[in-house]
Sequence to fold (230 residues):
Amino acid sequence: QVQLVQSGAEVKKPGASVKVSCKASGYTFTGYYMHWVRQAPGQGLEWMGWINPNSGGTNYAQKFQGRVTMTRDTSISTAYMELSRLRSDDTAVYYCARDRGGLRELLGFLVYWGQGTLVTVSS
Amino acid sequence: SSELTQDPAVSVALGQTVRITCQGDSLRSYYASWYQQKPGQAPVLVIYGKNNRPSGIPDRFSGSSSGNTASLTITGAQAEDEADYYCNSRDSSGTVVFGGGTKLTVL
Fold:
């Protein structure tokens, strides 16, 4: 069965960076787009971007351009999301989520989700 | 960038039918998908595309679309359907956007 297992909670100071991992299993990692979505406390879902695990190509939400970097390591079927220059309003649960479609067509239908990683930014 | 608009809150009597809507320009070209989220849990995909349900999703959940509006309908709402519901879609640039979410209360 498909599983996405994320790294554990992080506490960071303002201005620091955080790198969250998402280990995939149960399917061909390089065959599907991987998205990153975050949710601040009491707020809605916010799409951050996606990575094509096959090519490494990315597409980031304009809001995060210049601060987010999505990468992958195909040898261990793991995707990463690094957010830099952290601020207090980056405190959120960060999710990885796999697209339902294959690489031929980005669908945006997020069928499998990781368990979420809480990132707390506090001085 | 694209935006999707949802009503913040909707209520439904137990066993009745409720429709949750999502509006945005991207929906004229791309299908929406719908997610159910309960407190402390990751979102769950309940409807995608024209009107498709992932395995395990009850058939009381259905979707439809017309023009710039996508709708999620729950026919015979159950107590366990009380949750936040989010729509999303992609746009022509390959970015994805979520609606602001609708809190569903089952009375």
Q: What stands out?
A: Chain A touches chain B through 23 residues (CB under 8 Å). Chain A has a mean pLDDT of 97.
